[in-house]
Design brief:
By secondary structure, the chain is an alpha/beta fold. The protein has a single domain (about 5-225), classed as Aldolase class I (TIM Barrel, Alpha-Beta Barrel). Helices cover about 50% and strands about 15% of the residues. The protein has helices at about 5-10, 25-35, 50-55, 75-85, 100-105, 105-125, 140-150, 170-180, 195-205, 215-225; strands at about 10-15, 40-45, 60-65, 90-95, 125-130, 155-160, 185-190, 210.
């Protein structure tokens, strides 16, 4: 096997974004992420400060969403969200593009939106993932977003929010890796529910995945590695 437990655990952003999660659920999810030593916890913005406090001193990063899940916020609001998240201890921000403007071909506006949130995030020394929501886009639109994100210098491009009708397809992951500069990483979100799927997207060049079935995936990884 060409991977270790650490390699796989550090691919996972443990997702705590379902709006029906209670405070008890969020607390339990953070503790699960710590126990499995994943890459990050991506949590609802209102609970980010508490999450960051609980993760402090660990190797698990605190992350949250910006313009989530539909991306139609004004740029000023997205920047304000980012500034609040950074003040609350956020280390990685997952921002949704303005899908309406992408579909309208308003590429200058799309770029300004991404660049504004990236600038404030990088100024704070933290990282940004840009969510495309590929299920609504054609390949030309996905390629243009990859180019824009590459020029701006975002840290990851990400397939989806997990709330659209589609998740991370092999075709999309290949296309995103092909059209994004090597220094920009790829995040798969939606449909990564098993260890086998995690390994499949890893082979396609994915470095990070959003997951809710973290325990099941990593328990199986431990069993296979032990065997």
């Amino acid at each position: 096997m060409d991977y270790t437990y650490h390699d796989l655990a550090k691919m996972i952003d443990h997702s705590l974004l379902n709006p029906t999660l209670t405070v008890a659920d969020l607390e339990a999810g953070i503790q699960l992420a710590l126990a499995y030593d994943v890459a990050s916890v991506c949590i609802m913005p209102y609970y980010l400060r508490r999450c960051a406090d609980l993760l402090r001193g660990s190797t698990v990063k605190a992350s949250t969403t910006i313009g989530f899940p539909h991306g139609g916020h004004t740029t000023a609001i997205k920047v304000a969200e980012a500034e609040q998240a950074l003040a609350d201890g956020g280390e990685e921000l997952d921002m949704v593009v303005n899908i309406s403007q992408v579909l309208s071909g308003a590429w200058d506006a799309v770029a300004r939106d991404i660049e504004a949130v990236t600038a404030v995030t990088h100024a704070a020394g933290q990282k940004i993932k840009v969510i495309f929501e590929n299920c609504y886009l054609n390949d030309d639109q996905k390629i243009m977003l990859c180019r824009i994100c590459g020029e701006i210098g975002v840290d990851w491009v990400k397939t989806s929010t997990g709330y659209g009708s589609g998740g991370a397809t092999d075709a999309d992951l290949r296309l995103m890796r092909q059209h994004t500069p090597p220094q920009v990483q790829i995040k798969a979100a939606g449909g990564v529910r098993t260890l086998d799927r995690l390994l499949e997207v890893r082979a396609l060049g994915v470095s990070r995945c959003g997951a809710t079935r973290t325990a099941a995936i990593l328990d199986e990884a431990r069993q296979r590695l032990a065997g």
